Amino acid sequence: MNITIIGTGYVGLVSGTCFAEMGNTVTCVDIDDAKVEKLRAGTLPIYEPDLEHYFARNRKEGRLHFTTDLRAGIADSDVIFMALPTPPGADGEADLSYVLGAAGDVADLLRAEDDADYRIIVNKSTVPVGTADKVRDVMTERGLVPGTDFDVVSNPEFLREGAAVDDFMKPDRVVIGTSSDRAAEIMERLYEPFVRQGNPILVVDERSAEMIKYAANSILATRISFMNEIANLCEKVGANVDKVRLGISKDHRIGRHFLYSGIGFGGSCFPKDVQALARTGAQNDYNFQILNAVLDVNDAQRRLMVDRLDDYFDGDLAGKTIALWGLAFKPNTDDIREAPAHVIIEGLLERGANVVAFDPEAIETTREVFGDAITYADSMYDALPDADALVICTEWHEFRRPDLGKVRDLLKAPLIFDGRNVFEPQRMANMGFAYYSIGRPHVAPQQDDEAIEAALATNGQA
Ligand SMILES: NC(=O)c1ccc[n+]([C@@H]2O[C@H](COP(=O)([O-])OP(=O)(O)OC[C@H]3O[C@@H](n4cnc5c(N)ncnc54)[C@H](O)[C@@H]3O)[C@@H](O)[C@H]2O)c1
Asked: What percent of the chain is modeled with pLDDT above 70?
């Protein structure tokens, strides 16, 4: 099939590359000249595991193209995907101007063609309930006939950054929202190679498809905020959230995913999608109380580390140097949108602290936001010399097994605030660290040098 993807960001680029990998011819369109130039030169603008390999192969085999010219981009397409931004507006409502603007542009171009072929216009962006109708209206107002010239499909995307290629290639399910049998049949054909292992393609009405995406992200965000509240209460009552998680996750009704406590969720999806669904509720005279609480809990959780550091240093963070490991909103991505680390950096800078930060992939994206206001380290150890404390914000693999003897030697004092619970409190205490994590009892650090040396030699075993 000939596919057009309008919007070549995380979703557009991954979707386009994976469709090409299945033998389709794909043209990705973007308005960002520099990005398209880069892509045409063979350079990826984002970091995403496995993407490079598929990207290179499909470019080489002539199945993956990039352009800024929408007319050329849609010329031969059977299916046109819109993977465009839907950022929150002032009141949390999703901003549909990108999606509706592009739909209008596509309609104008199709109308200008003599005998334009039937096209499917797909909303791949996360869009509020009713958006498929709005897209259909925009295109109809421009003179196209629904069902004859085009059909609209809502096809929400569930990929996770950091595992996006794998998620796209082997989706748990594909959701196709449409009232057109013709469009449904073409979309099923397109996705059939991705579900060979038996996962379902669910064909539903447009509104349900749109709601499925918001409901999925909102329930995941709710689990995170819920577990963060459990963790906060564990600290107050002397329970250990790790053990609580284990205990509840063995219950089949609950399962084991999204039960980790930490410093809150971020990224380009959860915060905005929860807000947008709450806003949809408000617009429909429905107070979606849980979602408002989920967001409030998350805001507080993202500030937790700064409050803890502030308490530890008796309200005097000015002039202190804080090392930060992890800037991306989660591991395996360079995406820093709404990252908890950034809320922490802002809080530390406001209090006059110096920040030295390291991330395996997200230094450049962070530099675009903070410029020279913080210092960027070349490695996790380079962030430590003379730092008064280390804060762990993202659970990259390499942070899980560092040389803790070296960490001790480099830090001014052995003090770690772990926002992702990557270490075991008792072991850290054995190695002489003052170690504060989320929802787990603090263990007083070993003071005896010989015992500390012995523990360091065995990675914390007493
Ligand atoms: N990032 C994710 O993990 C993820 C997952 C599922 C769904 N989504 C949803 O998918 C949508 C896109 O998200 P993203 O993270 O890929 O966004 P993104 O910001 O990474 O990419 C959007 C791209 O669209 C381009 N663009 C803007 N206006 C354009 C226009 N008129 N024509 C052509 N290109 C244009 C931008 O230059 C940019 O490259 C959003 O609705 C998001 O909520 C994102």
From this structure: 100
